[in-house]
Please model this.
Amino acid sequence: MTWLITGGTGYIGAHVADAMTSAGERVVVLDDITSGVPERLPTDIPLVRGSISDRELVDRTLAEHEVTGVVHLAAKKQVGESVERPLLYYRENVHGLTVLLEAVVAADVPRFLFSSSAAVYGVPDVELITEETPAEPINPYGETKLTGEWLVRATGRAHGLSTACLRYFNVAGAARPELADTGVFNIIPMFFDRITRGEAPRIFGADYPTPDGTCIRDYIHVADLADAHLAVARRLDGQRDGGDLTLNIGRGRGVSVRELADLVAEVTGFTGAPVIQGRRPGDSARAVASVDRITKELGWTATRGVREMVESAWEGWRLHHPEATAG
Model:
């Protein structure tokens, strides 16, 4: 088996590459490096620089490395940007996936694992989001992920691929400091960025129908997420007759934004109070995964808690931002 990981120099992609190679899987990475960090990869993992939309490059990569499975992580993923630039998101996330799938079918690659998102659900008013909860995305990013799932499943049915669509909830933490999230788009790095600049973290909305008035979310450690990819990849490796898995990847436990802010303050030593601002459009009061299906199908469950996410993320943040202090 050789797995092609698209987007493998990114925050999540590098963790997936690390987990799979540590478990003895052969891996090659294809990445255009627009948001990735090549230094995240060990030197023994082949890195092909380029776009999934470059059919000739994808064909050559699949053939030269004798790829037998694809983990597709390369995508644009910022919700706000997707609203401002929907054509970019559809071109990168949908057209790019179409080109990749065409190459996979032509090369007779039998396994395809797709990185999806809880954004496909929109803002459902349910206690736990199951894989059967209606998918009603509210922004172009979520739409492209749902469309991607449709493409992957349809291609699998038509050409006999074994496929999986993994719906991530909120990813955080780092397996090692050098693999940490270097962007400032997710909530924990956003908190760290404010603290590093001597400013109070911001909480958007404190009047939701939740115990402390702030949104409740399901946070998953990125190392657990990578382990889930390994478990799914091995399931696909054992399948010979196609089929599809659609799985939530989370912990099945909710943490409020205020609770998270308090934990970040404790870990970093920040002594101020967060700033409460107005709600952001589209934020639901609660978004927590049901993880029964992945436990039943694969026997997999997350093992790392929120404190470990924050502590490991802070260690990584300080490696990349030596000026980071709190208090």
User: Anything to note?
Assistant: Residues 86-106 form the longest helix (21 residues). The mean pLDDT is 95. Residues 53 and 201 are 38 Å apart (CA to CA).
